[in-house]
Amino acid sequence: MENLFSIGELAKYQNISKQTLIFYDKIGLFRPAWVDPDNGYRYYSQEQYDVFMVIAALKELGMPLLDIKAYLARRAPERLSALLDQQEAEVERGLAQLRRIQTMIRTKRKLLEQGRRVV
Q1: pTM, whole model, 2 decimals?
Q2: Terminal CA-CA length for the chain
Q3: How far apart are CA 80 and CA 17, in angstroms?
Q4: pLDDT tens digits along 11-30
Q5: Are the beta carbons of 2 and 34 closer than 8 angstroms?
Q6: How far, CA to CA in Å, does 116 sit from each of 31, 78, 102, 119?
Q7: HEC string of 57-79?
Q8: CA distance 72 to 30
Q9: Rounded to the nearest 5°, which phi and psi values hold at 4?
Q10: Distance CA 5, CA 50 (A)
Q11: How far apart are CA 5 and CA 28, in angstroms?
């Protein structure tokens, strides 16, 4: 088990829960390099650490896990570029919605302030 991390070690290094790693294994996103047949403990290799960093970065960008899984199955710069374009468009839609909400809040606040002055 040289150069392998236990599930607890990887979870600690990445500041995530063991349950997250178990979930990723169950959905086939990030499977352990080795599972002890006697106790079922999961172990991850040094190379997998780098893969997990990609998963964490894409997840931080708000990318759905299924999209990340599809990308990891067939990594290519053009696929990553397309995913990033898609995610950027989603962020832009979210920002536009937040701007509309902000405008509504400001308008309501002005109306409330004007109402207080009248009373």
Answers
A1: 0.74
A2: 76
A3: 27
A4: 999 999 999 999 999 999 99
A5: no
A6: 61, 57, 21, 5
A7: HHHHCCCCHHHHHHHHHCCCHHH
A8: 9
A9: -115, 145
A10: 13
A11: 19
